[in-house]
Amino acid sequence: MSADWSRLLASPEYLGDLYDRTPPSAGSCDPFYVHIDERGTSVTLGFDTRILPVNSPAEWHEKGFNAFEFHLAFGGVEGLRVTGWNATAAGSIALTVHEELFEVALGSPGSGIAFRASTARLASTRAYLASGII
Fold it and tell me: 39-73: b or e for each residue (b if 16 or more CB lie within 10 Å)?
């Protein structure tokens, strides 16, 4: 994983404040959600991690939350390629930024999803109590 994943998520408009500018690595985030909206040329990706934010609300600790999920919404999507989706593809995340263009790949060229996007934003976050261990 390039430093772009960490740099993007560490910024305040993403997860930077919650994680004190040290967000979870791509390897500790499991993609669990993909929504492709051809009408708005957008792709929303959902990630789950067991690394709770260091600056989480006291309520999360009181409720025993042990999992955190977040969704990244990418807009102005171009060059979308879907060549399959399976557990192996879900385990590999690559995000790079070139000249203000986001390049995203989940999986490999043989089995995965890849696209370029002109915008990215944090769409939602949620802490919860998960059973079992990932």
Answer: eebbbbbbbbbeebbeeeeeebeeeebebbbbbbb
Nearest CA-CA partner of 1 in 104, 134, 116, 113: 104
**Would you state the pLDDT for residue 3?**
76
Under 8 Å between Cβ of 125 and 50: no
CA 40 to chain CA centroid, nearest Å: 19
Structure tokens at 24: 């979870």
Residue ranges covered by each domain of the chain:
3-125
What pLDDT does 1 receive?
45
Burial 94-132 (b: 16+ CB within 10 A, else e): bbeeeeeebbbbbbeeeebbbbebeebebeeeebeeeee
Q: What is the pLDDT of residues 77-91, one digit of tens each?
A: 999 998 877 666 667
Dihedral angle sign, alpha carbons of residues 9, 12, 15, 19: positive
- 11 vs 66: CA distance, rounded Å: 23
Q: What pairs with residue 81 in β-bridges?
A: 114
Q: What is the mean predicted confidence (pLDDT) over 38-65?
A: 93
